[in-house]
Amino acid sequence: MLRAILQARRLMRGHLPRRSGSWGLWPAALLGLALYLAGCRAPVALVSSLPPSASTITVYTSASQPFYSAHDGLRGIQLRVNVPTEFSPGQTPALTGGASLRVTYEPDLDPRYPDRDFYAWPESEQWLGELVDGRTVGQTFRSLYPGLNGITLRVSTYGADFSPGTGRLREGQPAIVREAPFAGREVTVLPGGTEVEVRSAREGWAEVILPDGRRGYVDQDQFASLPPPSRRNTGEVILRLYRLSDGALLRESRLPASTLHDQSHVTFAFEPLPDSYRQEYRFTLTAAGARPGSAVTFRFSPIDVYPEGSRLEGNGEADGDLIFRPAYAERMLVETPLDQALWSGLTGVLEVTFEPTGPTRDCYLRVTIQAGDRPVIVHWSWIRPPGGLPLSSADDPGAPAGGLVLNALYAEDVPVLSVLGGLARGYARLFWRDPWLTAAYIAVVAGALAWVARRARESWSHGG
């Protein structure tokens, strides 16, 4: 690009008339430069520059950062870390003491499917009604990652876990009562053998009413006895996966209705499809041997919450969408030692590069730092990477709500003009936010450019 500019200058100085009329050729020169820039390409990165550090965290075991990747060909990661300048006697000098870096897909954090929040059960959603023998429901969707190996849905068994009543905990096993199943905050601990009022089931946990009126959840496995269920479901629920383009049956998964828990997530697992990235599919649900009064149901939204697909009822489309999320086999994109990375003492940035990997375009990824022989001190910022997700630390569940100071490098190139267009759009947004400041800035830049152009014109005129 610089060579083209210099050639254009030499052309205008050596072959163009140096009188005022020669400025009529400027549009042609500028057009030529624009065409040249349109062919120039520049490497892309996750962000244009690393965000400012707020502080540091110490990684004793591992810390990770999810982010949204808009480009393909991931080839490097930049991190801001503190590298020791002195080492203890007998300690091998190394940048990070044998730490490693991993990059994996993170589809569970992708917010583009209808099941966006594991713990949320919005009142705007409904149940489909019993899935009896002879009824078929389904959904079309686009897979955004490779390795599709299941479909997760929300199921209700109409109280087939137990009825409201009194349950008794196992002797000698204290039970933690949580605000929500699995990962909810601890409410209290009940001694083993305690009798407690149970109301309903969710995710295989029993909702309990404590003597002081507080509510919480206890794992059903902690109970020695529970009230009998209000019904027993029969039959087998069958999920079939088809390729949308030609209708070919690709996978099938079956689960006995009697094994499903009330108001819970259920995953119909199957062998992974390695080539499922950006592919479109259709899945159907049927229930062989399920009769009215002994069948399960699945959750859906009566309004369209998933623009990439449609809900199916029988042989046609229906309003709304099933509440679902595709499941994927875990896949390691990169695993590399950090001690071999390039370190800049001036910026404090560690840059690790590797062979381009992918696909990574339009995917959520996770960078994980695994400590080696000694802790690694990494910087974090209140500005999170694209995707807006917080960092996580295996050493500190209460880690800051910011993000690791991180950048990703890609082998993919973009046209220079598109980069300039992005800058122009950024200035346009700035103008709408603060037009006076932007106008003053433009005036200063325009004045400087006018002065440079005038001096250049005078220089070229005198050069004749």
Can you walk me through this structure?
- With 464 residues, this protein is of the alpha+beta class.
- The protein folds into three domains: 55-109 and 330-414, Jelly Rolls (Sandwich), CATH 2.60.120; 126-159 and 232-328, Jelly Rolls (Sandwich); 165-225, Roll (SH3 type barrels), CATH 2.30.30.40.
- The chain has four helices and 32 strands.
- Strands 1, 2, 4, 26, 27, 29, 31 and 32 form an eight-stranded antiparallel β-sheet that branches. Strands 6, 8, 18, 20, 23 and 24 form a six-stranded antiparallel β-sheet that branches. It has a six-stranded antiparallel β-sheet with strand order 17-16-19-7-21-22, with no helix packed on it.
- Strand 26 and strand 27 form a beta hairpin.
- The longest helix is centred in the C-terminal third of the chain and has 29 residues, at 435-463.
- It is globular.
- The two termini are 27 Å apart.
- The model is unreliable at 1-23 (pLDDT under 50).
- Keywords: Membrane, Transmembrane, Transmembrane helix.
Features:
disordered N terminus, Jelly Rolls, single chain, 32 strands, alpha+beta, 464 residues, 8-stranded antiparallel β-sheet, 3 domains, globular, SH3 type barrels, 16% helix
